Amino acid sequence: MAGKTTILAVLKGRTKETVKEFLSSIPKRLKKTVKAVCSDMYEGYTNAAEEVFENYTVIIIDRFHVAKLYRKGLEGLRKKEMKRLEKELSEDEYKKLKNVMWILRKDVGDLTDEEVEILKCLFQYSPILELAYTLCNDLTDIFEDDISKSVATCRINDWKKNVEESGLKCFNRFISTLDKFMDKITNYFIDRQTSGFVEGLNNKIKVIKRRCYGILNVKHLFQRIYLDLEGYSVYA
Questions:
Q1: Which of 36, 45, 108, 149 could cysteine-pair with 58, CB 3.0–4.6 Å?
Q2: Rounded CA separation 111/10 (Å)
Q3: How far is CA 230 from CA 7, 12, 136, 219, in A?
Q4: Among residues 99, 167, 161, which one has the least CA distance to residue 131?
Q5: Residue 39: strand, helix, or coil
Q6: How is residue 76 annotated by DSSP?
Q7: Which is it for the CA torsion 20, 23, 25, 30, positive or negative?
Q8: 82 to 72, 75, 86, 98, 118: CA distances (angstroms)
Q9: Dist CA 18 CA 22 (whole Å)
Q10: Pick the residue with more confidence: 197 or 180?
């Protein structure tokens, strides 16, 4: 059915060999209908997909895993700066910076007036954190824009140059990853596909596992997962 998302399999491991064996079991006539494979940065997945589907399928690094990595750089800098400010500021001044961890994670457009003022206060004490925050949001804006892969590649390379010129070190790990996976990361801009469904499903299963604590029979656990995910549609 067009537009329907279907789980094809749950594998017993995440090694390249396990994934490749499953993908290779797909009939040849169906393999050629696979237009794209979207994954996180684990090379066991991406390399297996490349070898099985060869050149007729686009391999995409999920944009939300990319965002998680560059935001990790910002978060690392925030922790260092907050430790410094806790030592340097008075108790009252430091209290004005409450909840900055969550505020820095919010979309700029979703910030309240109070949160904007807290950020202004924070950035007065830490210009380097403001620079990293701005660069982080600049990269997010690129992924939000409806642009081609070639344009995105140019803009991301410009962003990378801006980071290097800024002297910031918090994005070093991300830039190394960017250099390694640039082609697969920018493949996102071809059709803007993500693995959001998989991440959402994983989170649902984690919640179900917590609710089903004490269920030792794997079969029963999967029955509960199936009922939670498909039960209403099956018995409606």
A1: 36
A2: 39
A3: 12, 22, 38, 16
A4: 167
A5: strand
A6: H
A7: negative
A8: 15, 10, 6, 11, 13
A9: 6
A10: 180
Q: How many CB atoms lie within 10 A of CB 49?
A: 24
CB-based contacts of 182, cutoff 8 Å, min separation 6: 153, 156
Q: What percent of the chain has pLDDT over 90?
A: 71
Query: In this structure, are residues 156 and 148 in contact, taking their beta carbons and an 8 Å threshold?
Result: no
**Token output for 40:** 């996180």
d(C-alpha 171, C-alpha 135), whole Å: 10
**Span 147-183, pLDDT tens digits:** 999 999 999 999 999 999 999 999 999 999 999 999 9
Rounded CA separation 139/132 (Å): 11
How far apart, in whole angstroms, are the C-alpha atoms of residue 26 and residue 234?
A: 27
Distance from C-alpha of 207 to C-alpha of 179, rounded to nearest angstrom: 35
201-219 confidence digits (pLDDT tens): 777 778 877 877 777 787 8
Per-residue confidence band for 232, with pLDDT thresholds at 50, 70 and 90: low
Using the 8-state DSSP alphabet, how is residue 37 labeled?
E
CA distance 227 to 223: 6
Spatial CA neighbour of 188 closest among 68, 71, 65, 59: 59
Residue the block writes with tokens 């995910």: 229
What are the structural domain ranges in the chain?
8-61, 64-187
